[in-house]
Amino acid sequence: MAQFLEYSVIGIASGGVYVLAALGFVIIYKAGSVFNFAMGEMMMIGAYMFYAVGVNLDFGWLAGLLFAVIGSAVLAMAIERALLRPMIGKPVVVLVMITLGVGSMLRGAAGLIWGPSIVQLPEFLPRKPIFLGDILIPGKLAWGLLGVGALALAFVAYYRFSRAGIAIRAISSDQVTAAGLGINIGQVFSLTWAMGGVLAAAAGIVAGAVNGVTPQLGVVALDVLAVVMLAGMTSIEGVMVAGIFIGWLETMVGAYLGAAWQSFLPYLVVLLAMTVKPTGLFGEHRIERI
Amino acid sequence: MRAETDQNQQPGSPEAGAAGAVAKSILASAAGRAALWILLAAALAAFPKISSVYLLYMASLVAINVIATTGLNITVGYAGLLSIGHSAFIGVGAYASALLWLHAGTPLLVNVVAGAFAAFLVGLVFGVPSLRIKGVYLAIATLAAQYSLYFIFQQWVVVTGGDRGLSLPRTNLFGLGDVGFYYFVVGLAAVLCLAARNLFRTRIGRAFIAVRERDYAAEVLGINVVRYKLLAFGLGAAYAGVAGAMIGVFLRIVNPDQFTIIASIFFLAAVVVGGRASILGSILGAGFMTLMPELLRAVLDLVGGGGRLDIAIVLSPVRETIFGALIVGFLMFEPRGLAGIVDRLRGRSEIIDSRPEAA
């Protein structure tokens, strides 16, 4: 029982990373209806930026964190402005293929700069384990979860209460009307991509701090799609529940059935979710059926 | 709205130039076209006589990839259903035909058909979500197919041999060895390309295009959208299955690492680079994408020769970067791909993605 609880806590903590990345995903999708397959690669690049400044240039982890967050936001905005903005109005399939291409470019670039082997991020989370009664929680995970939780809450608060958050929601429900009411749609796109970049970088750094970083991190991080699908593509609250649930389930399956099942499980969930309830558990009923 | 290439001929653009003019005058006459086809067939038939072992190997690989790319183009280009799991369907064909060969010892042609059929069925299974969902959701279903099938290839060790995969015996087609295989696969690719080209002159093919352009309108016109979407999915997968069966025979090994998502993106890039909704595009795209890494290796050898650059390490990320850049670049600046460039030289032009709003 104690072991089960311990795995549960570890699972919930690793679900936190999914929550962050999935939030970034949803915010970009809500504003521009762009399904960003490069999200995993944005996580990976964020983690590498952290590594480059924190370890390669040896400025310490705080500077690395700052650089990764700002750099990822700028990179995400640049991707949106240069590659996706000109394609507005093209079929969704084309936009999605562009994000796939961007992902491939980022993966290749990371491989060129940092090489194919795994790098370890600097130790910035305390290692000391935390004991809750009988349960032992690895220190990195616990502190990572705290950071993730704080960031996610800050994000939701900003989205709920700020003017920019209202503008995003307005665009998400009707672009033309929102533009007519004086919302600068281009600016909102930039803003949502910047937010997506920051969330991706944070998720990438936490994931990298636990498991190390390789150029393939982005492909692994595609598991986030399972979270987004289960939650329904547009639901902020749904993503939080689904992220933690998938993280928990994955850890459980990994612990009791073996690691190979772990990588397969998220996609099994996706297939089930799509066959049974394509809108996801919390999604808007916006999907057109034929 | 988009019309078939042949119906939308426009006067040649002035900048097409002298080369275009010559090409046009040859292509204008039926006799000229027939002569070109015969010339092409003769060149393909004579190729093994003049080529080295390496060139023959590359030519066979290009032919296999042409089959797979044509299949993906049916799904993505003509029917407008984004598939990111194409290499998994190739894998299904490869395993099905290899297993049949190893355990039943059936002749090659039977194995190829069985591989195509198996991939067709699996494609239908994963196409079922398209009954209820569309657009991006379908793309994720294919991604799920990619990972699920890879998982099965890797974990069902008793049947698939796990990570080590299946080793196949050497084939000797027509008693000609590698040359025989070349003839077989080139012939197969030619037949399948012709079949695909003719498909889009039939009711089924036109229905695919109608569904891509506007599914509601297609439905109103009496097209069973769900059935045609599934069919487009299954057909693309069947072509992948044929390519898979050929890859197994060609490399004499079938293992999970041949069928990763990277390979799926390779074929997607081939479709985009060659030209969506074009058979000529599939051929050009597959050829370009297959030969590009080889060219790249030569360039890297030249630039980084003398051991300054570890080519084995650099090649794979450079290739990935270029794949990605090609996808993005062609979508943005030449949405009709290499086939569009060829068409422009021939004095034809046509706009793809004429549809203003998103699907």
SSE blueprint:
The complex is a heterodimer of chains A (290) and B (359).
Chain A: H1 2-32, H2 39-56, H3 61-84, H4 92-114, E1 130-132, E2 135-137, H5 139-161, H6 163-173, H7 175-180, H8 185-211, H9 217-220, H10 224-231, H11 236-257, H12 259-276
Chain B: H1 17-28, H2 30-50, H3 53-78, H4 86-104, H5 108-127, H6 136-155, H7 157-160, E1 166-167, H8 178-199, H9 203-213, H10 215-220, H11 225-251, E2 253-254, H12 261-274, H13 279-303, H14 311-333, H15 337-345
Antiparallel strand pairs in B: 1-2
Give a description of the structure.
The complex is a heterodimer of chains A (290) and B (359). With 290 residues, chain A is mainly alpha-helical. Chain A has one domain: ABC transporter involved in vitamin B12 uptake, BtuC, CATH 1.10.3470. Chain A contains 12 helices and 2 strands. Chain A has a two-stranded antiparallel sheet with strand order 1-2. The radius of gyration of chain A is 19 Å and the shape is globular. Chain B is mainly alpha-helical and 359 residues long. Chain B has a domain at 43-259. In chain B, 72% of the residues lie in helices and 1% in strands. Chain B is built from 15 helices and 2 strands. Chain B has helices at residues 17-28, 30-50, 53-78, 86-104, 108-127, 136-155, 157-160, 178-199, 203-213, 215-220, 225-251, 261-274, 279-303, 311-333, 337-345, and strands at residues 166-167, 253-254. Chain B has a two-stranded antiparallel sheet with strand order 1-2. Chains A and B meet through helix 4 and helix 12 of A and helix 6, helix 10, helix 12 and helix 14 of B.
